[in-house]
Amino acid sequence: MARLSMVEAINVTLHELMARDERIVVLGEDVGKDGGVFRATVGLLDKFGPMRVIDTPLAESCIVGSAIGMAVYGMRPVAEIQFEGFMFKAYDQVYSHASRLRRRSQGVYGVPLVIRAPYGAGVRALEHHSDAPEALFAHVPGLKVVIPATPSDAKGLLTSSIEDPDTVIFLEPKRLYRLFKEEVPEGDYRVPLGEARVVQEGDDATIVTYGGMVSVCERAAQHVASEGVSAEVIDLRTVWPFDIDAITKSVTKTGRLIICHEAPRSLGVGAEIAAQVAEKCLLSLQAPIVRVTGNDVIPPLSKLEEYNYPDSEQVVRAIHETVQF
Amino acid sequence: MRQMTKEDLFQVMDPEGQADLAAIEGISEADRMKMYRLMMFTRLWNTKALSLQRQGRLGTLASVRGQEASNVGMGLALGPDDWFCPAFREYGAMFTRGAQPVKLFQYWGGDERGAAPPENSHMLPVCITVGSHLCHAVGIAMGAKIRGDKIAVMSSSGDGSTSQGDFHESLNFAGVYKLPVVFVIQNNHWAISVPLHQQTATETISQKAAAYGINGERVDGNDVFAVYLTVKRLLDLARSEHKPSLIEMVTYRMDDHTTSDDASRYRTEEMIGPWRAKDPVDRLRKFLIANHGWDDNKEAELQAELTAQVEKSVQDYEALPLPHPTEMFDHMYAEMPWHLLEQKDRMLKRLGETAR
């Protein structure tokens, strides 16, 4: 085991997977010589050469579109979009083709493609560099959306995503890239898609979250523990299709649900979680569901950034609200 | 790199069917007959499809009449291991890749199961979102180059697609990476109601190739020999030297954009008239009469044979069982996730059925 940050874990995973599967190709802007603007692909060009580590022209649509073609041809492309805010140039390729080609060809062609992108706020970045657009991808029939919260999960989930026969949108919370290091399993390591992780067990309330908000919710759970409130924290890991059993099992046990994401509040992943819980275990609930989320606003620049995404204090208040209902 | 002007138009057979015999020496009599047969079949299939649509027996579809030479010529030029990425007005090219007429009826009749490409056809499904499939041709060519496979990839799209960002991005990728890809533009002069001169200010479409450092050529798209020879030569160049090309095929959309369109709102008979005299099927027939002993009897025989084939495919199409409503859940993912299993189950309940 080595102590790695998330971005190092991603880099190590790409190195290991590319060494054992020559179908894997990495492409994107500045992924080669520069090693990616966050250094996630550093060293790959030297090791695997320009045929498999491809610095592309500045053209997101054709990065994803050509990756679709490569996937159809039997390769396993991993496309990097430099920031989540630039993914929309490629949205037509994702929406009209990557997600549909399996069905449009009646199963003759699949699109085993991973689209990686740095994701979310918290690094005082420029405009279009702090967005949380996961719902815009989760809502597309045929896609899977994965957001890791730890370096180990980044490795295990990226491995499963690259091995998955369908297209996975793999969003990497940039605030976690170098926030902390942990022991990451060496060699083959998989975290199955669609399986949530119980970060912390508890009996009084369930907090469902993912990505950059997991550590925020963990801190809140630790805080209320000192008050004698036991909160269960669930990290979805796969945002869609999410682990419905893990959610309903926990809510059935605790009777209270808090959902936390940094993405805009309305019509987001939290809304779907709330709807599923209402359909499947409403009568287990002893209090209204509480959402702690970003606002329905354009992510503010650095001066107001911290006021938009949830912090531990807000989550603590939400726990109080639901427990004291 | 010299830019193509309107004067550049490769033609080996004029509208009267008079051909430069030396230029077409490499095309055997059997191949010439095959071209005629496929072009005639495409026209008969297309005519039948339009009539089925008018009778409510088929959905909306785009007529390919007038573009049979471009379609069949480019399709026959492909090698068996080459890949083809069509748009949606390419029935003729698809027939050359083994597409089953009954499957095309099935798809355009509203049943997705008809969209399955034939096995080993190396052909993508039709592309409706204009020009986006050029990126896929690029990706397939990148895959082939990475693996060292000696194949070429061809896309086909219309003049409207050259206005798309994906056209620019794809040609740029092809130039930068020196990919084995040929982009065919069937310039039929219309993107629904918008004429070519409102689509682009360049004199020709082929001259756009210069901006990407790739080869650009311009051919008479109603001359099947010119189309075939040009595509074949440029596919060979792509395969052997990794030189990409843009080919403009100058042709004309003789019918409405689709069966939902009314072209009389934006174009006149005077505009179409000159193109009737350039008809690609008539042109090849005149050539065959002059050079290969083709006559009215043979023509009648062929038409009867192909019409019977088309009619048989209509019968087969109409005898197909309807898709089960739960078919819509198939092939969404390699493995059906829980939410779709739930929704499929809900569908079965709606139908009063139990899980199959």
From TrEMBL, chain A:
InterPro entries: THDP-binding, Transketo_C/PFOR_II, Transketolase-like_Pyr-bd, Transketolase_C. Residues 4-179 form the Transketolase-like pyrimidine-binding domain. Its cofactor is thiamine diphosphate. One of its GO terms (molecular function) is oxidoreductase activity. SMART domains: Transket_pyr. The keyword Transferase does not apply. The lineage of its organism: Bacteria, Pseudomonadati, Thermodesulfobacteriota, Desulfomonilia, Desulfomonilales. Keywords: Oxidoreductase, Thiamine pyrophosphate. Pfam families: Transket_pyr (PF02779), Transketolase_C (PF02780). SUPFAM superfamilies: Thiamin diphosphate-binding fold (THDP-binding), TK C-terminal domain-like. The keyword Oxidoreductase applies. This is Alpha-ketoacid dehydrogenase subunit beta.
